[in-house]
Protein: 3 beta-hydroxysteroid dehydrogenase type 7
Amino acid sequence: MADSAQVPTLVYLVTGGCGFLGEHIVRMLLEREPRLRELRVFDLHLSSWLEELKAGPVQVTAIQGDVTQAHEVAAAMSGSHVVIHTAGLVDVFGKASPKTIHKVNVQGTKNVIDACVQTGTQYLVYTSSMEVVGPNIKGHPFYRGNEDTPYEAVHSHPYPCSKALAEQLVLEANGRKVNGGLPLVTCALRPTGIYGEGHQVMRDFYYQGLRFGGRLFRAVPASVEHGRVYVGNVAWMHILVARELEQRAALMGGQVYFCYDKSPYKSYEDFNMEFLSPCGLRLIGAHPLLPYWLLVLLATLNALLQWLLRPLVLYTPLLNPYTLAMANTTFTVSTNKAQRHFGYKPLFSWEESRTRTIQWVQAMEGSAW
Ligand SMILES: NC(=O)C1=CN([C@@H]2O[C@H](COP(=O)(O)OP(=O)(O)OC[C@H]3O[C@@H](n4cnc5c(N)ncnc54)[C@H](O)[C@@H]3O)[C@@H](O)[C@H]2O)C=CC1
Ligand SMILES: CC(C)[C@@H](O)CC[C@@H](C)[C@H]1CC[C@H]2[C@@H]3[C@H](O)CC4=CC(=O)CC[C@]4(C)[C@H]3CC[C@]12C
Structure:
């Protein structure tokens, strides 16, 4: 990309731009990328809030499309300088079939790579996931690990399998010649559990608590730490990578970076209470109220119910064998690779991230369920 100071010349494409993370990336690009001439927002489901963004100086082009359709991706990609690929099926609750998860997350990513090669788009930033690493099916903890920490990444669930395959495709594509003869420069970012305004799982916890009279019941020991990262800082890291990939292609090309900030290490449930307690909910129990074997039985019954009810209704509770295993396995990262490679520092402090998330939950109070 021409280092044209602050002259708006660049065209960015964001796939999944109407999603939880995608919306934050789209809005932050418009606020913080002065070189942006056009922002293309590609999504299967376009959101109404896009219309309000069209009033600004940057051309915002909403494109309804499907990443599993190569021709739609190529058409959206044509003429863009950078693609930030966040579109995906984020499903560990059994909402989509394994085949569909693979088709969207793996084939969709292949279509994005092929479109870069076909149209000459030179820079690809992929939203991968901590799940590419773990927790693995053996329940091995990953304690304050980094991008170089040895860990047996063994997956059986369709979602982590798809993210690992897609990330591999992206990293292997680094250096491929795109139309015009220049090399494709790729990079993969691995967020840990993202939280913040618009997080559907947090919304589900909140409404579950309301249904139980303001109470949530502990299922995970407080000692099990899960790394979390604020959505605004994840968005900021994507924007920084997209900006620095050209100048630092030799260093950053083909690399993976965990997304991190100063959010505290806590159990998944205790961390959620940082935002739900100020909104009137209580987490009952200093320890899990039920023995682990009983939780496993309940999770298994939920999975059986989901299977039995599937012809009639989609039953997708928070508790299933995979989510229980995930929540009960420590996974935290401690790294500064992003800072060393491209000067990343969190844009939002923990206090700001917490306040913004609490305000979002509070705004849900009284809103339609
Ligand atoms: N939510 C989290 O805690 C984490 C998410 N990630 C990754 O971040 C990315 C974004 O995740 P979220 O924003 O949480 O999910 P989301 O479900 O809110 O957003 C995904 C977006 O992709 C779109 N999409 C789905 N299938 C599509 C298709 N076939 N064609 C075009 N668009 C399609 C959806 O309509 C949605 O707008 C995903 O790749 C996910 O794997 C990584 C780590 C943690
Ligand atoms: C019901 C209880 C056992 C409760 O504690 C279950 C929590 C469970 C829903 C979450 C625990 C860990 C979460 C996952 C983790 O943050 C890593 C993820 C990375 C992604 O790329 C997508 C989301 C997720 C799989 C995330 C999903 C929700 C949990 C399983």
Observations:
- The mean pLDDT is 96.
